[in-house]
Amino acid sequence: MNDKQDRKPMRCSADGAKLNHHATMIRDPLNREEADSLDPVVDGVLIEVHACPKCGRGQPRPTGTIS
Length: 67
Ligand SMILES: [Zn+2]
Fold this sequence. Notes:
By secondary structure, this protein is mainly beta. It has a domain at 23-62. It has one helix at 32-36; strands at residues 20-27, 45-51, 58-62. It has a three-stranded antiparallel β-sheet, with no helix packed on it. β2 (45-51) and β3 form a beta hairpin.
């Protein structure tokens, strides 16, 4: 996993635990902002899925999100 990215770690909205980067997936953009950050290589928006080690809750985040 790439933990060297200069972005804030995600925290669980339920218990505040630091989320682990679980997976990265691709989906179609849902709005204009996402369309602007669309990755032309994969023709979609890269979504990071972060999972909470405490409660197992999963939270997606577009990789293009500015911290
Ligand atoms: Zn949690």
